[in-house]
Each structure stands twice: as structure tokens, then as C-alpha cells.
Amino acid sequence: MAVTGFGRNLTEDDGASMVKGTIESIQAGWLIENGIEAVIDARHPFSLKPNDTFSRMCSELGIMYLRVGREETALDANDLIVPVISMQEAAKKAVAIGRTIFLTTGSHDLEPFLEQREKRGFRLVVRVLPEHSIIKKCQDLGIGPKDIVALHGPFSKQINKALFKMYKASVIVTKDSGKAGGTDTKINAALSLKIPIVIVKRNIQDCQPCYGWEQVIDMIKEKPIKF
């Protein structure tokens, strides 16, 4: 299951059957009709919502529910690292630090930065997925082509450094998406260039036990198969 066309294409390229939609849109009837025996919830940690009821529905139906977790990034004490707890706070902190903000959080969190840009007049560079609808959204919101970096990761420290230098970034903004989301390489790249980096920490904790991918695969293998 994937929400964006880009995510759907990646899934289909790997040979998986594809269902369009969000996990919140799944109904109990659909799970029963399709004979679902296990659900692997690999949503981005920032996609979680309070009082998520999907895991409870799986439990009531006797369906195995496994949440793939990402470890939070351990932040060193460094004046260049600025932890915050919301995108609104990140926008305010970033604009107080530099005049060219390089936003690496995608297209879902543009509004707080655009509001600050309207007030303060700084340059906003955004790195987003190379999908037409996402690029169009950025342009419709007033972000010009020269400030849209449409690339698909993962990004190494070297690639991040090259992009930060190319766009003359004076402050970086990222979410703490763990190592899987490249948070460590962004931090290392920013610090090596002595550029401040604002990091949005997770404000919603997983209410379910979390597992690594290897654990999930082992648990699925051990699950009895119904015929």
C-alpha cells in the first residue's frame, strides 16, 4: 500500500501487488475479503497520529500487526545542532539563523516556511521527490524552479555536502527520520561545512512495540500458514 504515485511505482517495480490509499482508509471488511494474515506497518515515524486505532482493529480480527520502527538519532552537544519539536518552531528558528534555508523534509511541511518567507523575505530551497504533482505543488505555492531540488535518495554525506554548497545553504532543516531516512548523513554533511542544522524531533511516540526489518521477516517466517 502506498499513497503517492512515486511510492506505488517503486512497489510495483519490486513485483508486489499494489493498493492505493492510506492505512487509515483500510476497513475490516477489506482485510477479511483479501485474506490478510499479517500487516507490516512501515509508515514514516512522522506519519503516525495520536490514538491510532488500526493496530487494535488487526488485533480484534486476529491479524498479526508488526510496526517497523526507526531509532531516534542521538544528537551530540553542538552549537550547530538545533533540536525543535514542530515544523512551526523549525521555521522560526531557521529564519533567525540564516538567509538561505535548505529544507529537506519534502513537500508536506512547506506552509510554515512560506509564511515566514512572506514576512522575512529569505530564500527557501526545497528538496522533494521527483514526481510531477509534487513539483507542481511547489511551483503553485510560489517556489521557483531554481529552488526546487527534485531528487530521490538515499543521499550520502558527499552528495548532501555538494547540494548544500551548490545552493549556498546557510541553514539546513530536517526531521529526525533515523538512519533509514538519512538523518545522520545530513547532520554530518552540515557539520563538516559548519552550517547550522535544525532538527525536528518526534513528538508522537509509537504506542506499539517496534521491530527492525530482520526481526519482522523472521516473525513472518515463523507464522503458521493458513490453507
From TrEMBL:
Gene Ontology molecular-function annotations: precorrin-6A reductase activity
Keyword vocabulary terms for this entry: Cobalamin biosynthesis, Oxidoreductase
Residue runs in coiled coils: none
Query: Record keywords: Plastid included?
Result: no
GO biological process entries: cobalamin biosynthetic process
Pathway given in the UniProt record: Cofactor biosynthesis; adenosylcobalamin biosynthesis
Q: Name one Pfam family in it.
A: CbiJ
Is the keyword S-adenosyl-L-methionine assigned to this protein?
no
Q: Its domain of life?
A: Bacteria
Q: Which PROSITE patterns does the entry link to?
A: COBK_CBIJ (PS51014)
PANTHER family the record matches: COBALT-PRECORRIN-6A REDUCTASE
Q: Specify the protein name.
A: Precorrin-6A/cobalt-precorrin-6A reductase
